[in-house]
Amino acid sequence: MSTAHLIVSIVGAAMAGFSAFSVFTHAKWVVEPLAGYGVPRSWWPWLGTAKAAGAAGLIAGLVVPAIGVAAGIGLVLYFTGALITVARAKSYAHLAFPLMYVAPVVASLALAS
Questions:
Q1: Which residues contact 25 (CB under 8 A, 6 or more apart)?
Q2: CB contact set of 66 (below 8 Å; sequence gap of 6+)
Q3: ∠ at Cα 49 (10, 51), nearest 5°?
Q4: What confidence tens digit (pLDDT) does each residue in 9-39 have?
Q5: For the chain, what is the largest distance between any 2 Cα atoms, rounded to a whole number of angstroms?
Q6: CA angle at residue 112 from 73 to 102, to 5 degrees?
Q7: pLDDT, tens digit, for every residue of 76-112?
Q8: Burial 54-74 (b: 16+ CB within 10 A, else e)
Q9: H-type helices in 25-111, by residue range?
Q10: Is 95 helix (H, G, I), strand (E, B) or coil?
Q11: What interhelical angle do 44-60 and 28-37 show, nearest 10?
């Protein structure tokens, strides 16, 4: 495992974990846009859980690479869905946020080989 892979995996996990924590604690700067995008409130715990599981999986992937790859793929799919949701809501100025969170995950997957 390279140092770069270790660093981007930890950064990606920290960012996904922070994002999950923000959903679980109903941080105003997270839940107001979710409501504005039309994401049902009943989905929020599931979305937070998906991000938390992805973060844990990236960390576990440092020991068991297959878990990290699976978690990375899951997070890429999650944030792709976030991009689609933001675009459908025509909140184009917010498209940078899902991209910012998925970037270290993509880098982790690229460096996993």
A1: none
A2: none
A3: 35
A4: 999 999 999 999 999 999 999 999 999 999 9
A5: 41
A6: 40
A7: 999 999 999 999 999 899 999 999 999 999 999 999 8
A8: bbbbbbbbbeeeebbbbbbeb
A9: 28-37, 44-60, 65-88, 96-111
A10: coil
A11: 120
